[in-house]
């Protein structure tokens, strides 16, 4: 089993993927041990490769303002504004339906995600995979998030534009009732959406970052505005606050320095 892991590592498989393989094998052998099919769980004697955490590159507050100002007239402005104002995962963002919004109350209910799945009903002209809306993997991913008033206004304008597009396409419009879709109503391919995000960054004269760094941007800005890590954890849908604190330790350190400076002033006073 160790040789198997080493071979996968040498072939260039990411450490995270190898750890997924280990999790499956470990669970299977654990059950086999309970059923007395094996004498011990040999996966416990293996060592999985340790991957380096990807470095985050969130936008600063000034860069975020610059980005939104430049793309304000773009069709996907509401999508980018919503991402930076909520920190949703890409699949969660693209699976949002109008019924998930309470525009009057200004809240968003995250209930599902858009994912590529294997198409078991392949017919002529269809691919091996297709986009589907699925339930979230964990209960923590189900959450209700308040939305800033300006984003609510942008979504209302987007809804009016979408209604016009629906009339224009008529019967050929594919109505999945999602908020963010192509002009003809079809789902947006997450990969194409990321490519469009890259083009908008370039258009705004900003350095290239991953789309996932938009999520990091939201969280970093929230923490820098002195919001509690527990609030940020809930809004991001993390199952444990330790995950939030571990990812954003660089921000929490700045907050701790600020707290120490305040305490210093209080003691001097």
Kindly describe this structure.
The chain has 269 residues and is mainly alpha-helical. It has two domains: 2-45, no CATH class; 61-247, hpI Integrase, Chain A. It has eleven helices and five strands. The protein has helices spanning 2-10, 15-34, 61-70, 77-86, 90-94, 149-169, 190-203, 212-224, 229-236, 241-247, 249-268; strands spanning 101-102, 107-110, 113-118, 129-134, 143-146. Strands 1-2-5 form a three-stranded antiparallel β-sheet, with no helix packed on it. It has a two-stranded antiparallel ribbon with strand order 3-4. The model has no long low-confidence stretch (mean pLDDT 90).
Summarize this entry quickly.
This protein is mainly alpha-helical and about 270 residues long.
Topology:
Blueprint: H1 2-10, H2 15-34, H3 61-70, H4 77-86, H5 90-94, E1 101-102, E2 107-110, E3 113-118, E4 129-134, E5 143-146, H6 149-169, H7 190-203, H8 212-224, H9 229-236, H10 241-247, H11 249-268
Q: Which H/E pattern describes the elements?
A: HHHHHEEEEEHHHHHH
The profile of the biggest β sheet is: 3 strands, antiparallel
**CA-CA gap between termini:** 63 Å
Strand order of the largest sheet: 1-2-5
Strand content: 5-15%
- Parts with pLDDT < 50 across at least 5 consecutive residues: none
Q: Structural class given helices, strands, pairing?
A: mainly alpha
Portion in helices: 40-55%
